[in-house]
Amino acid sequence: MSYTPSPADKFTFGLWTVGNLGRDPFGEPVRRPLTPVELVHLLAEVGAYGVNFHDNDLVPIDATPAEREQIVRDFKAALRETGLVVPMATTNLFSDPAFKDGAFTSNDPAVRAYALHKTMRAIDLGVECGATTYVFWGGREGVETDAAKDPVEASKRFREALNFLCAYVRDQGYDLRFALEPKPNEPRGDIYLATVGHALAFITTLDHPEMVGLNPEVAHEQMAGLNFLHGVAQAWEMGKLFHIDLNDQAPGRYDQDFRFGAVNPKSAFFLVKFLEDVGYQGSRHFDAHAYRTESYEGVKAFARGCMRTYLILKEKARQWNADPEIQALLAEINAGDQSPIAYSPATAAALKERSFDRHALGARNLAYERLDQLTVEVLLGVR
Amino acid sequence: MSYTPSPADKFTFGLWTVGNLGRDPFGEPVRRPLTPVELVHLLAEVGAYGVNFHDNDLVPIDATPAEREQIVRDFKAALRETGLVVPMATTNLFSDPAFKDGAFTSNDPAVRAYALHKTMRAIDLGVECGATTYVFWGGREGVETDAAKDPVEASKRFREALNFLCAYVRDQGYDLRFALEPKPNEPRGDIYLATVGHALAFITTLDHPEMVGLNPEVAHEQMAGLNFLHGVAQAWEMGKLFHIDLNDQAPGRYDQDFRFGAVNPKSAFFLVKFLEDVGYQGSRHFDAHAYRTESYEGVKAFARGCMRTYLILKEKARQWNADPEIQALLAEINAGDQSPIAYSPATAAALKERSFDRHALGARNLAYERLDQLTVEVLLGVR
Amino acid sequence: MSYTPSPADKFTFGLWTVGNLGRDPFGEPVRRPLTPVELVHLLAEVGAYGVNFHDNDLVPIDATPAEREQIVRDFKAALRETGLVVPMATTNLFSDPAFKDGAFTSNDPAVRAYALHKTMRAIDLGVECGATTYVFWGGREGVETDAAKDPVEASKRFREALNFLCAYVRDQGYDLRFALEPKPNEPRGDIYLATVGHALAFITTLDHPEMVGLNPEVAHEQMAGLNFLHGVAQAWEMGKLFHIDLNDQAPGRYDQDFRFGAVNPKSAFFLVKFLEDVGYQGSRHFDAHAYRTESYEGVKAFARGCMRTYLILKEKARQWNADPEIQALLAEINAGDQSPIAYSPATAAALKERSFDRHALGARNLAYERLDQLTVEVLLGVR
Amino acid sequence: MSYTPSPADKFTFGLWTVGNLGRDPFGEPVRRPLTPVELVHLLAEVGAYGVNFHDNDLVPIDATPAEREQIVRDFKAALRETGLVVPMATTNLFSDPAFKDGAFTSNDPAVRAYALHKTMRAIDLGVECGATTYVFWGGREGVETDAAKDPVEASKRFREALNFLCAYVRDQGYDLRFALEPKPNEPRGDIYLATVGHALAFITTLDHPEMVGLNPEVAHEQMAGLNFLHGVAQAWEMGKLFHIDLNDQAPGRYDQDFRFGAVNPKSAFFLVKFLEDVGYQGSRHFDAHAYRTESYEGVKAFARGCMRTYLILKEKARQWNADPEIQALLAEINAGDQSPIAYSPATAAALKERSFDRHALGARNLAYERLDQLTVEVLLGVR
């Protein structure tokens, strides 16, 4: 197996990922800035399919209209030259001090208005570059103290903003879907819509729920120690897996955004297996960055590693599905008539009177230790 | 202030809470079992309003029909004698080995059928005792390895079970609503519907979403380090706060079920303030238990402490709302025209062209440090 | 590679591990009890080298002297028959209600005396069965509230107990070393000597520090989200790695005691590599248990899986050490004169005046992304 | 009670705390930089006793000798003018890219030499300004992957550096003690000497352990979910509590450095009570910073809040110690002969034969629920 990425794999990176300068709360940048055009070429060199951006990754927040035009022109030329596409775009609503208390949920109505203004313009920019998915990560939509903001009021404000922007997109006739990206904390003490679940629930309260789905991120759920696969599966089953952010993260820590599979290859395996088994067709977006120890050679190694590990795990998923012993165990585990019990008064009455041998039910050996051990051995390449 | 509980406070306890024997994974029971009748009297003595139960807290799993009748008769007599009510009941779908791989999501269709059978009977029992809320905590609905169960399949099975049981309740004409109680892990490695958010989202996919709401528990969200208030507020805003389980818990640990307010009185304060401010009318159910160091004298001290701390915090919420300096800060924080921006193409166009002074927006002092310090001082009783 | 265990691998299990009945805080036992003799034969069947025990795993707490003698005789016969050895023993100071507030640190002096009494007898039993390492896991040495016990006083009490027991062992002329097993919480709200570090520091304050070392456990450090390897390395460097408990655990959760390598094979790899590289000669003790879904067939699969995964990772450590590209990277990373700078006034003065090009130091590419990716690929078996 | 700080309270702040600009991984500075002189005046205004600094908080890393002299002269003048003192200083070994792979534990010997060079100069600066405690926070001493650095080798390097610097301080005749500040992670994936325990153990391996103690920080232990009081008590009992960093932090998250008592006033209460009860004489150093929502007015509110909450909790500790019901419970809990059992062969033999009524020991009610509830009520100001 060559594990070489191809466009069909739909591997994408944000400009901010390979362009990350290695600044952190305790340290200064370790890498010089590259231009968007340079980053597109870097991504092309390592074999990526597409590139995503925040408005200000591409166009500085204080650029003039003329500068904006020139930047976009150069960027599109780089895309044409390399064949890269832009499947997704998003808004930076977190870096500027204006957003220090949130954007759509800020207590200041002028900030909320500015956030809408900035997002409409960023949507225009994304669509102009070809994006069909638009991500909302509400990194500043939260609090350090619940004395400062009413969570019900915040929820209403967030909803109003998304309803406004859905209406805008429809009015403009854009072919664009929204994808919410939840996160429990950092940079705020607590962020609203903390998990995939909270965001899925919130979507059902919008004016146009059909336009809005999820962009779950591995690190964001794992920060809270949650099983990422379960959240992704719920989003998938509800038809809401619009995009996905792949990276890695040790639970209960700061947002690490490590190379995909770098922390726990076993949970990464179950995730890749799921995406491939259900036939997920969207981007495999790596929202991660290289260690701060690396120069741009290391950044390329990082990017190649993300894609290569995905492809290795995809091949292992195929092996797992083809393994006769594993399949025999699965058949045994799922034996019996698995069809659901349809409700009728008669069925219910009969079931209520049916007698069960609970001791026999509890005595069954389920062979999950064996199944998991076989999974580990497929993962470690010794089967 | 006397901080003495009254029925209007709607303080309830489960039979399993004051009846907890102090058994844990590493230790044997430290308290002798009390009968349900004894527990009802204990709760009356400490001033509780109501008592909730799992089917097998009241009626042993292997009781004969005659034994069941006698137990229920005695229990109802104790209720009449003490004036306690039964606002909520639930099913034990986790203790028996039959449920070792789940109940509604078990891979074994016979276990799933047994779970429905057991739950219908438990619903009958709960309704017979007066319950109008029926809780579903899916403690065994999960996995230790994702090799063993397909999360999408599990979701379908869970839905089928709830749809079946909603139909059953409607057919029986019961005045009963369901309340799902999420939890991220323990006793399973990972439990499905991990948080308030996941459960809220799941409810929207049911046949009768109007019948099904939430029973969020402090400890379960805090185990995952999530802000419990935010989850409760989301449930409330969606009209889904049907019940609530109060206790306390250090984040990132085993399920501790400590006395309400025992770990972090500040987060307990914000929760009580919210419930009182929005006018939540349901039970304040303490799903907690006494330390293992206690005899039944300690159990009573524990139960009294839960209620007393709630009432103390309720009084502090009143003080906070009446504090002029706090209210002045809130007015300042929420200054400006807070009405939402209604979408129209013209409004959007104007907003897109409007010019913003982002530096001025970012320069505003928000005084949240002062506000939070005043909150701490109200909490500590020095204002 | 066959990955078949041999005595030279020094794989041991506790009677309580393969004998675990699958009881948990929410569920009843799922497996029938086996006798110690049956467990010895089970361990022999799967290929273990040794078996460890708590006093009451072997001899019930209420056994008569005659019963004790018979049990020990039968157990020793089983050891002779199977060839298994007993490298380690320990005391159960946590199951009985007497220890509900601790054993050596209990506020009750009678409990502290009983704990010494019980431990002396358990030491005799362990030595009689051949143990040369004696473990102290202070599972109840802690608090739910710091109002209840003074941590300095608790520390003194713990020290006095260990000093007493060291003196006892020396007086008896036993060939026995002590190994402390730290844990941050569960079953107590907080346990004293929370981590490997706290225990290492504490040992230096004992009368006979040379007799006392560590028994670090994977799950106990990972519960607190700590890097287990780093703790093990510190214990090793201080000459204190007397024993080790291998299992697996997701961070920030209840004590899971999963099969070795089941949660995160990458961190298990670095651990095995360390133990093999430094030449650790002690037991590889698996302090884990099978999922609750398993019968004793599953228990055997669990035990075999622990050992097999260790051996697979040991072989991968060998591959890693032999991989030319990895070794070339390591050589590059560790280039330059690595000898320490010995202090002298002149050296210090010169160094203080020396001029450094900090920009050049910061510009170096360290290739850790590449090195970690190669490690992942060795782990996944694709190199 | 006025809760007004006085010099006797020994409240100190770092230049970096009130001087924090509100930059974070996702956002730009929200406050303009103040000069050290301005910060000294700000601290004097709010009532602080002292000010601490990293070398580069005071003197920029690229300052000329002449600039250094002028800066120090101005700073000392501000100290004289305000009466503030400098009890502690430290080195910035984490911001510059040179330290991206560590300082004392870097794989690059030139970086290690530079770290010694920089620290000797920073020690000179600290001593010149009056510091008698010198802190070592090894923020970059760690790894993102254990493939990159050998933890035993790292430990040796760390030890060599500290031994070198102890020798330097002795040679210079400085009146200076070292205080290690542990942290488990952030900004590195894992940091060596992760907790108070690991650092205490490490100190015992140094050439001059008597010169080296601890600077534990609330947030750093709580990030790992550890009980901070227990670590502080262990350091105190070992004579190693040389300094302390006060702030607050929700467990299992990024390093928050919130205002003291802002997250959990109950754990802050136990900490203050301990420091006051044992007679800790060192600085109460607040290593925290204002929310990013604040201007310098908010920074002052933050600093005042830290000190005021400490004084409120100190008064509550006094109340707790004077509360008759609490003291009666403590007397009951600690009843019996609490003197230790001195070892002698005869005592051991007698104790081994003594008979215990373990059922009676287990049956005792310990009244910890009542005690903790009384503690909560003292804390909330309702007793």
Describe the overall structure.
Four copies of one chain form a homotetramer. By secondary structure, chain A is an alpha/beta fold. Chain A folds into two domains: 7-322, Divalent-metal-dependent TIM barrel enzymes (TIM Barrel), CATH 3.20.20; 324-380, no CATH class. Helices cover 47% and strands 9% of the residues of chain A. The first copy, chain A, has helices at residues 15-18, 36-46, 55-58, 65-82, 109-128, 151-172, 196-203, 218-223, 228-237, 265-278, 296-322, 324-333, 345-353, 358-363, 368-379; strands spanning 11-14, 50-54, 88-90, 133-137, 142-143, 177-181, 190-191, 212-214, 245-246, 284-286. In chain A, the strands form two sheets. Chain A has an eight-stranded parallel beta sheet. In chain A, strands 5-7 form a two-stranded antiparallel sheet. In chain A, strand 3, helix 5 (109-128) and strand 4 form a beta-alpha-beta unit. The two termini of chain A are 16 Å apart. Chains A and B meet through helix 5, helix 6, helix 7, helix 9 and helix 10 of A and helix 5, helix 6, helix 7, helix 9 and helix 10 of B.
Question: Characteristics of this structure?
Answer:
homotetramer, 383 residues, two-stranded antiparallel ribbon, TIM Barrel, 15 helices, alpha/beta, 2 domains, globular
Pattern of helices and strands of chain A: EHHEHHEHEEHEEHEHHEHEHHHHH
Helix % of chain A is 40-55%
Could you state the CATH homologous superfamily of the largest domain in chain A?
Divalent-metal-dependent TIM barrel enzymes
Describe the strand arrangement of the main beta sheet of chain A, using strand numbers. Answer: 8-6-4-3-2-1-10-9
Q: State the helix count of chain A.
A: 15
Query: Based on CA inertia axes, which overall geometry of chain A fits?
Result: globular
Strand content of chain A: 5-15%
The protein's oligomeric status is homotetramer
Number of DSSP strand runs of chain A: 10
Major sheet characteristics of chain A: 8 strands, parallel
CATH class of the largest domain in chain A: Alpha Beta
Write the CATH fold name of the largest domain in chain A. Answer: TIM Barrel
User: Domains counted in the coordinates of chain A: how many?
Assistant: 2
Structural class of chain A: alpha/beta
Outline the low-pLDDT stretches of chain A: none
Radius of gyration of chain A, Cα only, in angstroms?
A: 23 Å
Mean pLDDT of chain A, to the nearest integer, reads 98
Distance between the termini of chain A: 16 Å
